[in-house]
Amino acid sequence: MSRCPERGRPPRGGWWRLAVLLVSVSSLPAVTALLEGLYCGTEVCYDVLGVTREASKAEIARAYRQLARRYHPDRYRPEEPGDEVSAEKFLLIATAYETLKDEDSRRDYDYMLDHPEEYYQHYYAYYRRRLAPKVDVRIVILVTICAISIVQYYSWFNSYNKAINFLVTVPKYRIQATEIAKQQGLLNRPKEKGKNRRTKEEIREQEEEVIRDIIKNKIDIKGGYKKPKVSDILLCQIVLFPYYLTRYLAWYASWVYRFTVCREEYGDEEKLYIIRRFMKMSQAQFDDLDEDTKRTFLEKRIWIKENYEVYRKEREEEMKLKMATDSKMKRYRRWMKNEGPGRLTFADD
């Protein structure tokens, strides 16, 4: 009857098998770290180029140039019949070089070799780098803002020129500009003689230019047709936003301290500001009002909420009465009632 081995001791020859198993396990990280579809696939990029992991950039570049000259599809000549190398070999060499020449890509690849168990993170790092935009996003945003600002300024400038061209044709402004030009001596010039004498067409063009310049300088156009300013474009607004925000916060803190904490009396400027807020008007719209209207606001004390409600109701009643008695509004209401914009009729030819 054969004797059984003692409990807790491996059978004969077991130590040798255990040593082989340990050696195999120690080599697993280098094998399992090679994932299909990432970098060089199942090949080690360092082995593809024939360099070590401690190789410098110069050594990696030198090895790539040597292999590229040797295995380029246009230059490769097999030494033995049947020893054909397809373009996949050259593509593998190029992939290895692209992986190892960049510091960040090489760092990710070395981390994959050293930590094969984190294969999900390796896929994420690889495709994040490949799919990331090659151009800095900040540059793209800056170029986009600059392009929008240029289009914005060009559009405003065209609108301003259209407004000036229209005002030049209005008799009221044209007569006023002509009188100003005569007072400044821009149109009362002595007649020219000799070679320097100009034609009637040239004189007329010069007079038109003088009138146009006076209208430009004397008339303050507001709203969408106002004269464009560089400070109003998007790029300048973004750059100056911290300055505007700081000014607003300082103004708001001063307002709270003066009129809420210290209980100071409102001045005319503060009263008009409150009135403008009640009317929900922009600063440009409020500035277009004449001084008599603003003085009326102050006399009626409509910066007080109760007074403003009374004033608003009075204005609504006046507007209703005007619409009821105005002949144009009567015709408009009759047209809306009988025909309206949505009614289909046959045209009488």
UniProtKB/TrEMBL annotation:
<keyword id="KW-0472">Membrane</keyword>
<feature type="domain" description="J">
    <location>
        <begin position="44"/>
        <end position="113"/>
    </location>
</feature>
<keyword id="KW-1133">Transmembrane helix</keyword>
<feature type="transmembrane region" description="Helical">
    <location>
        <begin position="137"/>
        <end position="156"/>
    </location>
</feature>
<protein>
    <recommendedName>
        <fullName>DnaJ homolog subfamily C member 25</fullName>
    </recommendedName>
</protein>
<dbReference type="InterPro" id="IPR036869">
    <property type="entry name" value="J_dom_sf"/>
</dbReference>
<dbReference type="InterPro" id="IPR001623">
    <property type="entry name" value="DnaJ_domain"/>
</dbReference>
<dbReference type="GO" id="GO:0005789">
    <property type="term" value="C:endoplasmic reticulum membrane"/>
</dbReference>
<dbReference type="InterPro" id="IPR044632">
    <property type="entry name" value="DNAJC25-like"/>
</dbReference>
<comment type="similarity">
    <text>Belongs to the DNAJC25 family.</text>
</comment>
<dbReference type="GO" id="GO:0006457">
    <property type="term" value="P:protein folding"/>
</dbReference>
<keyword id="KW-0812">Transmembrane</keyword>
<keyword id="KW-0732">Signal</keyword>
<keyword id="KW-0143">Chaperone</keyword>
<dbReference type="Pfam" id="PF00226">
    <property type="entry name" value="DnaJ"/>
</dbReference>
<feature type="signal peptide">
    <location>
        <begin position="1"/>
        <end position="33"/>
    </location>
</feature>
